[in-house]
C-alpha cells in the first residue's frame, strides 16, 4: 500500500495525457534532476508572486490581486521548504538547513493575516447559522441572511469577535509588510533567486532515484495516520472533540496536535508527488478529501479557541458569553465532524485499493 | 411492510415459547376479548402499584420502592390510555372519552418529578464530561469523577441548574402527592378498579378482529416517520439540530415536534403489539432501538431548553453563562445524534425485511 501513490498513474482523468514529464533514469525512475526542475519552477513562481505583490502594493484585507499574490508566494514557499525537507539527502546540507527555517518564518508571517480574516468569516457565518438567519447548504432552505435576526447576545458576540479579530488581522498585515521590507526577507529572496537558476544538488544527486525518499515521506504519513484515534473518529457523534470544552485550560487542545501533524505530513506527501509526477492532475480524490478535512479541522479548532478566548474578555454581558459558549461548542463539533470526514475519506480508498 | 409487526413472530428468542396467548377467532386472529384481557391486566397492575406507592409513603426523589411504584403506575396508565385510543371503536365511546384525558393528566403529573430529576442528572453528567473530569463510555478512559476539575463557570452553572431543577422537582413532588390525594384521582382510581373486573366493550366487539385497528396505528406511525427529515438525519454532523441554537425564541424548538410525535406513535404501536401478542418477548430490536433513540431525543431537547433557560437567570456571571452556552449546544448535538441513531435503527430493519 505504501507504494500506491508513488507509481505513475495508470489512467489519468478522461484519458488526458500528463502535461509534462520528469527526467527519468534508464529504468524509468524519476531522478534528482526532476527535483532540481521542480525547485527551479517553484523559485520562479515565488519571484513572480513577489513582483506582483509589490506592484499591487500589498493592500490590507487579504483580498484582490494583492491577496492572490500573497497566497501564491506562500504556496511556493511551502513547496520549496517541503521539498528541501523530504529530499534533504540530495541537496547541499548547509544551504538546505539555512534555508528551511527562513522559508517557514516567511510563509508563517504571510499566512497570519489571511488566517485571521478567514477565522472571522467562519465565526460570523456560524453565528448567523446558529441564529437561523441563513439556511444550511444543500437543504433547500438557503436564502440571503435576514438582518436583525440575531439575538442581542449573538449580535454582541459577533461585534466582539469582529473587533478582536480585525485588530489581530491589522497587526498581522503590518507585520507582514514589515517582514517583506526587512533585510531578513531580502536574504531569503536572494537565496530563492539563486535557486531559480542553480539548484545546489549534492554530488551525484542528479541521477539518484527519488522514490525511496518520497516513499519515506509517505511512510511517515502512514505511521502518523495509524496513530490517530480513527476508530473513535469513525463513530459519528462520539462527543470526543468537546471532551475538554469546559476544562480550565482553553488554549489549543492537546488532542488536536496529532491531527495537525498529519495535515503537515499529508502536505509533504502531496508535494513529493508533484516532484515525481509533475504532469499529473491532482486527481487523487482520497488525498484531496483527506486534506480538505484536515484544513477544516485546523480552521474549526482555531475558531473554537478564538470564541473561548473572546469569552474571557472582561466585563462582557452574560448573553454575549452564552453566545460565545454555543459558538465554541459548535466549532468543536466541527472539529469532530472534520475528523469523521477524514476517517471516511481515508477509509474509502483503503477499501478500493487493497 | 405495514404488516410485518402484526403477524405473530415466526421464531422467538432461542426457541422459547410465548408465555401467554391471546384469545383468537377460528381463523387464528386476535379478537376483542384479547383487548379486554390486556386492559384487565393493566388495570390490576395499576391498582397494585397504587397500593405499593401508598405503603411506601411516596418519598420525594423518585428513587427506591416509591419511585418504582410511581414508575409502574405511570406505565400501566400509559398502556390503558394508549389502548383506549388505538382500539376506540371496540370500546364504549362515552366511557372511553371520559377516561383518556384523566389518565393523561395522571401520568403527566406523576412523570414530572422523575423528569426533573433525570434532567438534572443528565446536565450535571454533561458538565463533568465537558470538563474532562470523567472519561467517555467505552473508550477505556473512564474513571471516577475528579472533584475540583470543573472550571468556575462549569461549577457555577452546575450549582445554578441544581438549584433550579431541584426546586422544580420538589414542586412536582408536592403536586404529585396532592394529585394522588385529590377527588379527581379517586375518580380515576375507581374507574380503573371497575376496569379490572369489567371492560366496557362495545356490542359484538368481543369477537371482532383486532388487527385492522392495530394496522391503522402502525400506518399512522409509518406516515409520521415518512414525514421526518430522515435523509438529513442520516448524514452525520448535519448541524441541523443547532440551527436555531441562538435564535431569539429559546423555548422548545418547532423542528423537534415531529420527532416527539413519532415517539408517541411508536409507543402506541408497541402497546398494540402487546395487546395482540401478549406472550411475545420484546425482541424487536428495531422498535427498541428506535424507541430508545427517541427517548434520548426528548431528554436532550428538554435538557437543552433547561440550560438555555438557566442562562437567562438575572445577574449570573459571564463564565456561568458561557458554560451554559456550551452545555446547551452539547445537548442540541445530542438531539442531532439521537436523530441519527433513530435513522440508523429504522433503516436497518427496513433493509433486512424488504
Automatic annotation (TrEMBL), chains A, B:
Pfam families: CHAD (PF05235). Residues 1-27, 55-74 are annotated as: Disordered. SMART domains: CHAD (SM00880). Signal peptide: none annotated. It comes from the Bacteria. Residues 28-351 form the CHAD domain. This is Metal-binding protein. InterPro entries: CHAD_dom (IPR007899), CHAD_dom_sf (IPR038186).
Amino acid at each position: 500500500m505504501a507504494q500506491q501513490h508513488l507509481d505513475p498513474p495508470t489512467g489519468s482523468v478522461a484519458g488526458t495525457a500528463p502535461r509534462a514529464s520528469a527526467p527519468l533514469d534508464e529504468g524509468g525512475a524519476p531522478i534528482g534532476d526532476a527535483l532540481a526542475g521542480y525547485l527551479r519552477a517553484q523559485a520562479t513562481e515565488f519571484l513572480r508572486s513577489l513582483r506582483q505583490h509589490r506592484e499591487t502594493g500589498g493592500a490590507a484585507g487579504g483580498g484582490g490581486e494583492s491577496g492572490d499574490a500573497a497566497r501564491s508566494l506562500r504556496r511556493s514557499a511551502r513547496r520549496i521548504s517541503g521539498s528541501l525537507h523530504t529530499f534533504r539527502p540530495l541537496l547541499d546540507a548547509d544551504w538546505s538547513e539555512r534555508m528551511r527555517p527562513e522559508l517557514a518564518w516567511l510563509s508563517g508571517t504571510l499566512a497570519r493575516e489571511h488566517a485571521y480574516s478567514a477565522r472571522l468569516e467562519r465565526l460570523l457565518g456560524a453565528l448567523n447559522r446558529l441564529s437561523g438567519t441563513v439556511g444550511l447548504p444543500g437543504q433547500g432552505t438557503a436564502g440571503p441572511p435576514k438582518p436583525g435576526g440575531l439575538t442581542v447576545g449573538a449580535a454582541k458576540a459577533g461585534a466582539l469577535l469582529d473587533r478582536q479579530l480585525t485588530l489581530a488581522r491589522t497587526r498581522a498585515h503590518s507585520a507582514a509588510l514589515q517582514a517583506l521590507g526587512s533585510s531578513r526577507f531580502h536574504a531569503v529572496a536572494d537565496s530563492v533567486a539563486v535557486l531559480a537558476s542553480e539548484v545546489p544538488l549534492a554530488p551525484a544527486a542528479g541521477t539518484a532515484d527519488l522514490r525511496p525518499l518520497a516513499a519515506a515521506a509517505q511512510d511517515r504519513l502512514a505511521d502518523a495516520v495509524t496513530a490517530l484515534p480513527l476508530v473513535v473518529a469513525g463513530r459519528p457523534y462520539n462527543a470526543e472533540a468537546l471532551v475538554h470544552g469546559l476544562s480550565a485550560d482553553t488554549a489549543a487542545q492537546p488532542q488536536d496536535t496529532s491531527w495537525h501533524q498529519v495535515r503537515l505530513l499529508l502536505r509533504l506527501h502531496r508535494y513529493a508527488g508533484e516532484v515525481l509526477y509533475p504532469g499529473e492532475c491532482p486527481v487523487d480524490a482520497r488525498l484531496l478529501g483527506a486534506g480538505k478535512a484536515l484544513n477544516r479541522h485546523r480552521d474549526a479548532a482555531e475558531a473554537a479557541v478564538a470564541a473561548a478566548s473572546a469569552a474571557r474578555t472582561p466585563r462582557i454581558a452574560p448573553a454575549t458569553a452564552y453566545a460565545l459558549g454555543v459558538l465554541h461548542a459548535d466549532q468543536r463539533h466541527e472539529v469532530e465532524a472534520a475528523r469523521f470526514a477524514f476517517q471516511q475519506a481515508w477509509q474509502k480508498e483503503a477499501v478500493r485499493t487493497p
